[in-house]
Amino acid sequence: MANNYADPRDRAFIAEDNARLRGDLDADYAALGAILQRRGVNIEAVTANVASFGVAIPSWGVGTGGTRFARFPGKGEPRNVFDKLEDCAVIHGLTGATPTVSLHLPWDHTDDMPALRQRATALGLGFDAVNSNTFQDRPGQQLSYKYGSLTHTDPDVRAQAVEHNIDCIRIGKLLGSKALTVWIGDGANFPGQQHLTRAFERYLESTAQIYAALPSDWRMLIEHKMYEPAFYTTVIQDWGSSLMAAQTLGPKAFCLVDLGHHAPNVNIEMIVARLVHARRLGGFHFNDSKYGDDDLDTGCIDPYRLFLIFNELVDAQWRQAPDFHPAHMLDQSHNVTDPIESLMTSAIELQRAYAQALLVDRQALADYQQQNDALMAAQTLKRAFTTDVQPILARARLQKGAAIDPIGTYRRSQYRLGCAERRPAAQSFGGGIV
Ligand code: LRH
Ligand code: MN
Fold first, then answer.
1. Is residue 60 within 6 Å of ligand 1 at its C-beta?
2. Atom of ligand 1 nearest to the CA of 434
3. CA of 102 to the centre of ligand 2 (A)
4. Does the beta carbon of 18 sit less than 6 angstroms from any atom of ligand 1?
5. Are strands 233-234 and 219-223 parallel, antiparallel or unpaired?
6. Residue ranges near ligand 2 (ion) with Cβ within 5 Å
7. Mutate to test the pocket of ligand 1, among 168, 331, 335, 434 (most ligand atoms within 8 A of CB)
């Protein structure tokens, strides 16, 4: 590293900061341990669970995001998928919570995928689901997706979109990925523009061809979304359409819940409970939102909603719900923060919600529910949510050789300034999420 920049992944560099912070952490951890012991909770068991929690980083999230109005690139933007992996390794090195990366194709296309896998392995990273993209036309593309892709009325356009998804599976296999996420923007802007049933039937016909190309140990993750880019109907608009499709396609098809893809007051934890019951909860795209698909940092607007989702996940784990293996991924757009800092804090917010959900006294809750003691049932959740689990989160990181204070250590490394020197800024004008 040129000048006096440090490598934030360097264990010795991290240990310097941890040594300074260790004393206070030990005191806070001991105090919390005593509180939890009085509740009959073993703090070490919670910390071990938190330490085993991992979430995938969206490759498209490490660059500065934007909106349709504008994108204001930051310093040292990643120029290609190899730079993105470097940044993902920094996030994992400092949090210990993000061991995998979810790629988006063709945004992350490179001619040498085996080299990319080697680089990831060298950085201590693996690959989670690959995401296909039939919501944009790329240069040289034969047929346009303007009026849809997998549900387009033209069978040649559908075939082109199916081919792309099968190609994503081929690339994913080279990377060691085990899932394909299919989100399509197909829909209509006007009543009457699209036949609602035939469009869904075309979706099932196209995805059946993609499904047939899935290796035996792969999953297809179907991502529903209420609206955007279509503003009247979206073919896979809600969890019901997604579940119907998954159940029609077969046992390797699951439903992916992107938190931002619902109307503001929709009860997402209820949807999660239903998908767990149906044995089709494939995973999440975590983020937060206040109005639309705002793709804000996880837990920054409504941390209680995030807690209630994890309460359903821990409850499913506790009662050993069958076929329960949700994949956790972030899907955010960082328009005004350093993406690395936002992704680190977002991964930690997930660990916080998970730790708090592990503190729920499930037997007491079940008893209050049985007795219809609404107040005490609600209080049982609130007590867990209002427990400051910060010492557990920091201890879990410390146990993994990560940073007690990831943001502090990251900023002290001046990694971003180093990137600004090593990565000459590409001039870009205009909007768009990436
Ligand atoms: C659609 C979505 C989908 C990705 C895209 C980047 O809104 O959530 O998961 O393909 O964002
Ligand atoms: Mn998403």
1. yes
2. 6
3. 11
4. no
5. unpaired
6. 258, 285, 331
7. 331
Task: For the chain, 434 residues long, give each residue's pLDDT as a single digit of tens.
Answer: 455 689 999 999 999 999 999 999 999 999 999 999 999 999 999 999 999 999 999 999 999 999 999 999 999 999 999 999 999 999 999 999 999 999 999 999 999 999 999 999 999 999 999 999 999 999 999 999 999 999 999 999 999 999 999 999 999 999 999 999 999 999 999 999 999 999 999 999 999 999 999 999 999 999 999 999 999 999 999 999 999 999 999 999 999 999 999 999 999 999 999 999 999 999 999 999 999 999 999 999 999 999 999 999 999 999 999 999 999 999 999 999 999 999 999 999 999 999 999 999 999 999 999 999 999 999 999 999 999 999 999 999 999 999 999 999 999 999 999 999 999 876 555 556 66
If one residue of 130, 168, 183, 332 were mutated to test the ligand 1 pocket, choosing by the most ligand atoms within 8 A of its CB, it would be 183
- Quote the ligand 2 centre to 374 CA distance (angstroms): 35
How far apart are the CA of 23 and the centre of ligand 2, in A?
A: 40
**Whether residue 293 has its Cβ less than 6 Å from ligand 1:** yes
Q: How far is the CA of 167 from the centre of ligand 1 (A)?
A: 19
